[in-house]
Amino acid sequence: MTPSSNLRGALLGLLAFGIFSTHDVIVKYLGGSYSPIQIVFFSVLFGFPIATFVLLRDQTEANLRPNHPWWVALRTAASVVVGISAFYAFTVLPLAQVYAIIFASPLLITLLAIPMLGEKVGLRRGIAVAVGLVGVLVVLQPGQTEFSLGHIGALLAAVGGAVASLIVRKIGREERSVVMLLYPMVANFVLMGAALPFFYVPMPGQDLAAVAVIAAFALTASACLIFAYRAAPAVMVAPMQYSQILWATVYGFLLFDETLDTPTLIGSAIIIGSGIYIVLREERGGTSATTPVLRTRTRVGTPSALRIAPFLSSEKRGPWPRRDK
Q1: Per-residue pLDDT at 54
Q2: What whole-number distance in Å separates Cα of residue 274 and Cα of residue 12?
Q3: DSSP letters spanning 173-206
Q4: Whole-angstrom distance, CA of residue 206 vs CA of residue 198
Q5: H helices of the chain, where?
Q6: Cβ(168)–Cβ(176) under 8 Å?
Q7: Residue 316's pLDDT is what?
Q8: Sign of torsion, CA 87 89 180 306?
Q9: Cβ pair 49, 275 in contact under 8 A
Q10: What's residue 201's pLDDT?
């Protein structure tokens, strides 16, 4: 990789997460009038043309039956939980607080990679995970602030996102991209559609257009991430997700009269620092057999987005590289 391509990858990553943050602002705006169930349903509905495009591009002669049905089912369930939980959290909590909690996902990936991928986590990475989880407690302030359903939603999104990402790492080589994309979308569509009659509120054209923009932003940002990871190594792109805390601060202040309180600021700094340390430790090699965080390239909490990890051409050229412990 050349310095120019590294810079291009980093800038594309920044652009992607800036678009994702704008996507979340629209979710929060719509959440003032509509249930997250309704927002997820229509965002997935508008995302189906994207899935159709992917299906048409896939020239593999095969059916849509998964090779690993139980893993696909678990990933589908996790994706459904992530979508509704994240959308709900964005609706009821300050943007910066949601991001701070969701930023714990790489830490959870590192922990869950032990049972799911057979990963061995050394002392330094273990300490980094522990420090990061302390940062989550700083944000949540147990005993000092009311622990709401919004906080539970953000935590579920972080856990579900970690589980879904690790399953992609585990079976992504052996499952078609369209299977990994289509099953969560269909599940979201069916389950949210079944619940929709109990929550539906008529939407004017401008709000339907806003939901369509959500789906379009999810596609655009996912495409930017694909190009970013093709242009630069993961260690250059992955930390760009933390730029969302800056977007959240600006958007929250300008649009929702939100301020970045001290516990969220301190907790975010701790979580981001531990996350970046884990990324750097994996990049150095000799500490991880599977580099679960670096090779996890999916954005949490966007049910209408492409799950980009299976679509990266660089991930299709051979077995996952393994490093000596």
Answers
A1: 65
A2: 23
A3: TTS-HHHHHHHHHHHHHHHHHHHGGGT-----HH
A4: 22
A5: 3-31, 36-57, 69-92, 95-102, 105-117, 123-140, 149-171, 177-195, 205-231, 234-237, 244-256, 262-284
A6: no
A7: 43
A8: positive
A9: no
A10: 94
| Paired tokens of 34 | 């509509």
Task: Tell me the Ramachandran region of residue 108: left when phi exceeds 0, alpha when psi lies from -120 to 50, beta otherwise.
Answer: alpha
Q: Are 106 and 275 in contact (CB under 8 A)?
A: yes
> Which of 89, 86, 24 minimizes the C-alpha distance to 251?
24
Give the Cα separation of 119 and 24 in Å (integer): 33
pTM listed for this prediction: 0.85
Distance in angstroms (rounded) separating the CA atoms of residues 75 and 165: 8
Helix axes 205-231, 3-31, angle to 10 degrees: 160
Instruction: Evaluate whether 41 touches 188 at the Cβ level (below 8 Å).
Output: yes
Q: What is the pLDDT of residue 170?
A: 84
CA-nearest of 105, 110, 147, 123 to 272 is: 105
CA–CA separation, 302 vs 300, rounded Å? 6
Rounded Cα gap, residues 15 and 223, in angstroms: 11
**Distant-in-sequence, close-in-space partners of 60: CB < 8 Å, separation ≥ 6:** 176
Spatial distance between the Cα atoms of 219 and 216, rounded to a whole number of angstroms? 5
pLDDT on residue 314: 42
Question: Cβ neighbours of residue 174 under 8 Å, at least 6 residues apart?
Answer: 67, 68
Measure the CA–CA gap between 43 and 17, rounded to whole angstroms: 18
Closest CA to 303 of 84, 93, 108: 84
Structure token digits, residue 255? 């649009």
- Spell out the residues 6+ positions from residue 11 whose beta carbon is closer than 8 angstroms to its own: none
Flag residues of the chain having pLDDT under 50. 313-325
Sign of the torsion angle spanned by Cα atoms 93, 99, 101, 102: positive
Identify the pLDDT of residue 197.
94
Residue 255 makes CB contacts below 8 A (sequence gap 6+) with 25, 29
